[in-house]
Amino acid sequence: MFPHSVAIREVGPRDGFQNEPEVIPTAEKVRLIDMLARTGLRRIEVTSFVRADVIAQLADAEAVLAQIDVPDGVSVSVLVPNERGLERALAAGGFDTVSCFVSASETHNRHNVGRSVAESLIACERVIEGARSAGLSAGGVIATSFGCPYEGVVEAGGVLEIAARLAAAGATEVGFGDTTGMANPLAVAGFFTRAAQELGSSVELTAHFHNTRGQGLANVVAALGAGCRSFESSFGELGGCPVPAGATGNIATEDLVCMLEEMGISTGVALESVLAAAAAVRALLGRSLGSHTLVAGPIDWRR
Amino acid sequence: MFPHSVAIREVGPRDGFQNEPEVIPTAEKVRLIDMLARTGLRRIEVTSFVRADVIAQLADAEAVLAQIDVPDGVSVSVLVPNERGLERALAAGGFDTVSCFVSASETHNRHNVGRSVAESLIACERVIEGARSAGLSAGGVIATSFGCPYEGVVEAGGVLEIAARLAAAGATEVGFGDTTGMANPLAVAGFFTRAAQELGSSVELTAHFHNTRGQGLANVVAALGAGCRSFESSFGELGGCPVPAGATGNIATEDLVCMLEEMGISTGVALESVLAAAAAVRALLGRSLGSHTLVAGPIDWRR
Fold first, then answer.
1. What pLDDT score was predicted for residue B303?
2. Which site among A236, A256, B129, B193 is 20 to 30 Å from A298 CA-CA?
């Protein structure tokens, strides 16, 4: 039922940092990314080329890319909202993968980027095609794939249509975001079973769960059982979404790695090294974080 | 794969309160238990008859039992460590079920109660037989069933031998405690599959998970898939274990109810009512708790 190995993308430096109210100095971001890049993680999303007046926290995207020191074999991705962002990203360089994003929910997409889903999807297609033309890999992430805080139910059929469009444009990976933690294990199992049937093996399917209601790792187990082999997570459980207020963020990379390795599923990641990075960001931010393993420590089997 | 309904025992008033450093006034305990008893929960563990010099927090066991007002149909259980505790409990009355406990790990049992596992097991058998003779139901809980912080690996075979002894003595329910959060979904699935095979339908099998490393609800999903239909949890995610230091406690009742009801598995529990009880205990304790749904609120499907 469970696979021998899975892929994990660390999204803390982008998804986590962008939700921090105080701007983190570039040097600190670089230090933390360099730590993460030496944990065994093979995919890291390091920043986003959004407009600086929209997300001031990530205004230093070029500087971050210029200063990080990432070993060979670690894929570096950046989030890009549109063609202008792609132009900036391509001028900067220093990464191999471009991720674009769109919400499955019309209302959430308008709240998030002030466009219709159809408009965002066209922008995504242009970003993917542009990235591919530049010799880069491209992926897309679909927010509110399992439910929308404004609209409620989001139909899987519509989500998978968007995924098919992204794949047709050249995305080699599509991520499904549970942006406000509305997914449950039964829904996740059904969704990924259907996604694998409809999208086949043409595109890698990635789960992006939030731990909003404590179900993050339970949803991972359900996704694993339905064939999902790729996950996004954030060290320290950073990140999340302003809705609902006060809720925790993405699943914590260290909690994900702890669970998977205990299950005999190889992540390639050294748990102690991720814990060191999470402890470093906790010290930097000066507050306790949502991560559990960061508090409890790894399991000591006394072997 | 998943059942239509499960049974939940709320253990916060015992397992949660006993871990609180400041003694909670009896009237506050009674108020919270009375709230919990009106949520739809059909099983509540309300106190323990341990020695007052060991756990001062629960020294008011008789008073709690005398003052609570629990509707018909809600089972009230008390934890009892030995025959002396049973005598006190029987003299007090006001409950229908007695739970005894033993660790699967020799070292943990000695740390916990200063006895060998064999000695504790004999005490459990006497408690179970005494409770049954008094016309009560009896159950046993086996701590460190999935791993021990002192010894590491705990063999399932030994745990199931203890469970068989408890069942033979007359226990109608045996709980398996993941006392310090060492279980993972693969181990849990294997354990409950084997437990059902070896113990059959003669005894109800209950899972008692902690959220120490964030895997609590993931372990619930694994246990559900392996046939487990009975769970223990604690409102607000109260409780836990002093090892490892600072770690969170039992899985939160409100997180468990939220997940199960979202999966279409009936708990009989009104989520909003449990959230009100968890909010009340948070206000009483004056600190944030580990519960996720208490922060995020129920999912709003806009229906």
1. 81
2. B193
